[in-house]
Design a protein that fits this description.
single chain, 2-enoyl-CoA Hydratase, Chain A, domain 1, Lyase 2-enoyl-coa Hydratase, Chain  A, domain 2, 13 helices, 48% helix, disordered N terminus
């Protein structure tokens, strides 16, 4: 797969763990540790965050697809590393900052999930804005089987996505959710055939990329505030964001295009 990401100093090393390609305004980022089912090693996470941050700075990129392989999106953390991690390291290390950096990405991210999406992999998918799942996908937080619990937001985001009853079942028993269960419970937005998992995510990303990048970023943050915080503060942010979006050239273009019965040409201004 062609790889291209300008201005990243460690590009040659990064190709081994993160594959990148561009399709117009859509960037596709694929995790690439197939022998380890894309287990999230420190090196992979470092390179993934660097790639996402760089893409987020690129005004030509309006949506990002994040995927793994047909067999696995990501099967969890690197257990060998985790077993040697002290409590202090777990609470203060750079690993936590990487998850926060992904949460701060303003560009919409579509997760393309096929096969195993477990532990840290499930937490990574839940950090994305939309999840497109293959019918083969399996979601879970099986950390309880190792004598620990999710540590990168799994207990919080899964509960908000599927509700307390299902989250308790998944987290306490270690059970996996099928793709259809994940759809029924609200964890994913759509389920597609085995062979369509990546192409459907790209198709959705292309549809998103056609919208105003200003409105996309504001809308993404508004939904995240609804998801993460109290209603009153979320509504207050939404009102401010709506006014900001309304003042943009893109908003004027969008309304003019509607009135003139043509397709808008958004420029991110």
């Amino acid at each position: 797969m062609a790889t291209e990401l300008a201005h990243l100093d460690a590009a040659e090393r990064r190709v081994n763990l993160v594959e990148l390609e561009r399709d117009g305004a859509v960037a596709v980022v694929l995790l690439n540790r197939p022998q380890q089912l894309n287990a999230l090693s420190d090196e992979l996470m470092e390179e993934l965050v660097a790639a996402l941050v760089e893409l987020d700075r690129d005004e030509a990129v309006r949506c990002i697809v994040l995927g793994g392989s047909e067999r696995a999106f990501a099967a969890g953390a690197d257990i060998g590393v985790l077993a040697q991690t002290s409590p202090v390291e777990a609470a203060t290390s750079e690993r936590l900052a990487r998850w926060d950096a992904i949460r701060r990405i303003g560009t919409p991210i579509v997760a393309a999930v096929s096969g195993y999406c477990l532990g840290g992999g499930c937490e990574l998918a839940m950090l994305c804005d939309v999840i497109v799942a293959s019918e083969t996908a399996q979601f879970g937080q099986p950390e309880i089987n190792l004598g620990v619990l999710p540590g990168a937001g799994g207990t919080q985001r899964l509960t908000r996505a599927v509700g307390k009853a299902v989250a308790m079942d998944v987290i306490l028993s270690g059970r996996y959710l099928t793709a259809r269960e994940a759809l029924d419970f609200g964890l994913v937005s759509r389920v597609v055939a085995r062979e369509a998992w990546l192409e459907e995510a790209k198709r959705l990303a292309r549809a998103i990329a056609e919208k105003s990048p200003i409105a996309l970023r504001l809308a993404k943050e508004a939904v995240n505030r609804a998801y993460e915080g109290p209603l009153q503060l979320g509504v207050a942010y939404e009102r401010q964001a709506f006014g900001l979006a309304l003042s943009s050239e893109d908003a004027q273009e969008g309304m003019n295009a509607f009135l003139e019965k043509r397709k808008p040409e958004f420029r991110g201004r």
